[in-house]
């Protein structure tokens, strides 16, 4: 029995450095010498900074690793995200009916002793025609009026509105790299891994690099992206493809400028449905990150780029588009022997609900808390890890598929094919059958296996105009007057929130100025005027 002393993370980027920081912070919280975390990344492999949208769990993760929020905002050129604004998902442009809906991060309001509002919304107690998310949460109003989710006086990663972040992925990785090395003791190796060799028990014995020769560890974490250098090529862990459910397998990405330097920054991701997929549009501090996710079997690359550029208009003129390929699916055994895959090496689901980084967070959390004290405990930890990750992927795939299969669009083969029952998992079909007669309930979900809580399913379900017939059960909901008052109270509270919460761009710039002022105080001399486009020297030079 040998004590586990060293972990080697192969690959940098968001997956590698977020895992390194979380693992180093957690396992060394009591004894700084307990486990040494190393990371090897190639100086020859660049990072694609197309822009990333995250899930609210990121706040807890960044707080857990001790990363100052203002430092993060400056270094990653980050902004706040309060949800997702869906355009043309229910019906095509120009069709009669609503052309958008909002998925907020706040849960529906329910005061102690008050009625649950969803059944009463279904029975018509809300103001006539008001969408579900607007009726039960003030966050739609806050976001659509350009307000941020917090005030400057709120603590790091705190605020009255639940929120996540948008940021430049390459800049974020550099911030994490600096923090991991300087504050958490992660040892970085700037080297290119050429191959890995297995030991007599079938695990990884060593990785061989061009610059540093052999690197060894007790546990190897594969963060090499879609290549899956260790888990796929060496450990031969199979990949379960789910292209039969989620058709998108291509993306085109482009960075585009704002119309003016002081243009408002939406505090939400904009997702606009197209003929063969959807376009993301996120606002960073000085530019937008945009991209078109599409299915190659429903359109060609040239047509996809033409659709994308038409959406961008003048902002996309002359811009270079980056074409990406991916495959939806996951490895049922991301942990084999002493090798565990995190990030794209373990699986990928299209970015519609920003699950990519959230899955990295989850995997890092599971790895940290399942990490055995000795090398003989690997197999049991691996089984638990694999079960949890596999179930999470399947539930995410169901959730994403629901967006597509409930659409009323019939204007292209892509949308028609997404309605085909053969493409809808049995688990999702069973849920939808139940929800025709009653709304989603927490007992429909196994909390520890879910990324999306019941309210998220409700927001998408009813944003997509799914019909639940509660008329036969009307007598079970006798508190119509109380519910009407709750709906009215939420609208009054939304008005007060607009007065209390600052403009989104304004709070971002204020917090960045405060960070610059702190840096000036630490240096003891005035520095140059703050420019959020410029990374702090320590971050830029990593």
From TrEMBL:
SUPFAM superfamilies: FAD/NAD(P)-binding domain (SSF51905). Coiled coil: none annotated. Residues 519-542 are annotated as: Disordered. This is Tryptophan 7-halogenase. PANTHER family: FAD-BINDING PROTEIN (PTHR43747), FLAVIN-DEPENDENT TRYPTOPHAN HALOGENASE (PTHR43747:SF4). It comes from Luteibacter sahnii.
